[in-house]
Structures are given as structure tokens and as C-alpha cells.
Predict the 3D structure of the following.
Amino acid sequence: MVDLQGQYAKIKDTVNKSITQVLDTSAYINGPLVHEFQADLEKYLDVKHVIPCANGTDALQIAMMGLGLEQGDEVITADFTFAATVEVIALLKLTPVLVDVEADTFNLNIEALKKAITPKTKAIVPVHLFGQVANMDAVMEVAKEHNLFVIEDNAQAIGASYTFKNGKKQKAGTIGNVGTTSFFPSKNLGCYGDGGAIFTNDDALAHIIRGIVNHGMYTRYYHDVVGVNSRLDAIQAGVLQAKLPNLDTYCDARRNAARFYNKAFASNANIITPTAKSNATINCGEICDVCDCHVFHQYTLQITNGQRDELHKHLLAEGVPNAIYYPVALHAQKAYKDARYKESDFPVTNHLIKTVISLPMHTELDTEQLEFITNTINNFVK
């Protein structure tokens, strides 16, 4: 699914130099490379504050802690996503509220979001799933109307941008009150272990979060807020700093692979290819070269003739990696079942879990590999 060895080979000297620098200085925690990477990422995202942390799940939890959400506050997020998004809500004794997603982008359904708001609602967590930015025009309008926080789960879409209705363009993760990301190795910008970061333009919030990630300390052994131990180690920061200048190139390579896939499956009536939208109304069609609205962390098909599970097995037998993201909706998971939910509330999610399948998507895919993958699928799905 991901060729990290091939990617490493192209930047080996730079990565090794960064790691050696850390080993030579022994500055493993909050060392110079952490601060250099933080500054470089702030510049890339055009955001005032990047606060590195240990992983993407911590980033979400710390963002919610920083906003001062209290036990029982309701936080709305998408039903069709990885469990970390809802996991941290539950861990903080907040009340997760799951809503359905859009059939084309797989992102938060705005009408479902509006219906889910109650007097206890305090925050919205739009997930920019698979690399496609959610409808942030509508999310921000709803948040403003109801005085809600917006926490962007940008774990899968770093490098993507959103174009607002007024023409303004902004990087995913920098639009809401706070954004979070993961540097898990398979991400578009991934390290060689765990890592994450929090983004915000709010000076006061950034100050609180900087304390939270470091045991609540601003001065050593003086604990001003309740915190956690969640820091990006310097070796991972060095890897990320080596990769960051290549992030746009990495995303372009993924879009090139997506274009190949789209063209190969265009005439197959039983396959729906991913949608790319620069905002809620502009469909990018063939994934244009200049549009960075979708960075294809995953390339996810919908198989409409009931053959998804058989295709999954067939591809594995033919040596083609593939995955089903996600086979069980969050509202149906044992940990998050709730009597408030009705199956009729989640028609799209319940359809997607039966039809989606994700194909290899990374920076090192070549034409021979892509042809083998697409021919194998088209010969099976008829």
C-alpha cells in the first residue's frame, strides 16, 4: 500500500544527516531540529503556531483540552472515519455525536450536522477524509451561527487546500479554531515512528496547548495547567524536516496516480472513482494539475455490483495490496454504540462500509504497477 523504502532511497542522505545530527548532539527531546521543523511547517501552512506532539491522536485530545471543553459537552463528528476521532472525545468524558457523511466526498454531511446540534453542542470536528477537504464554508457558517468551536482533523490531508466561496484559499488544518495532524509513517508527510502536531492562529490557545503537551509546564517543575507528556522527538523531527520540502511533490505524485486510476476505471460501470472538490460547489472533474484540494492519502473506490469483498480477496491472491477503510461504522462499534442512534440516520455510511476499497497509493507508483493493478481490477469487476 505504501513504499516507504523507495521514498527513503531518494532522500537517504538528507534523512541520515538529520538523524546523525541528533545523535551527535544528543538533543533528543525539544532539540533544535524540533524547533526548526516547527518553524518550517508554520511557514508552509501559513499559520502562526505549530505545536508538535507525540502522535495524531494526542493532537486531537490536546486540542480539545486546550479549548476547555467540559464533561458532558457534545462534540459532533463524522461516523465514517478512523476511531481516533471519536476515541479522544470519549476519553475526555465529552459526549460524541456521530452524523452521516456525503456520498461523493465521504466528509461530514452538513444537513446532518445541523440536525445534530443541541444546546449542549460545543464543537464540530470535520475530518478531511482520505485527503479531501471537507465543506469548510458550510462548517464555519454553522459554527459561527451556533457559537461552536471547530477542530479540524487533518490527519489525512496535510498539504491540501480549500478555496472559499469568496475566492480565499487556505491550507487544510488552519481554517478552524484549531487543527491537528498525524505524522504516522504512511501519511503524505510521515516520519519513521509516531508523531503529530496542532495548528492554530490563536495566540492564547497556542500558549495553553504548549503547556499541555509538556506536563502543563511553562517553567520547569511549575505546573500551571493540567497537562500530558506528548512531545515530538528530535529524530522524528529530523525525518520530517527532510521530507517537508518534498511534500508538494509527494502530493503531486499521488494525484498523478489518481489520474491514472480514474482514467483506467472511467468506462467500468460498476466502479465509482473518488471525487475531488476545491470547495462545496466546484467539482474538479479530472483532477487538474494546479488544484490541491485533494491530496489522496487514500485512493478509495466504490464497487457497486456487490463484488467488493470478492475483489478484496482476489487482489490479495494476485499480490495487489488493498484495504477496506472502514469495515464497521463508528456508530456500530461496541465502544461507541448509543441508543440515540438509528440505522436510518446513517444511510451513506452504511452503504460505504459495504462498497469501499482502497488501492495502493504512494509516491513511488510507476506505470507498470498501475497498469497491473487496474487491469487486475477491470478484468474481475464486470
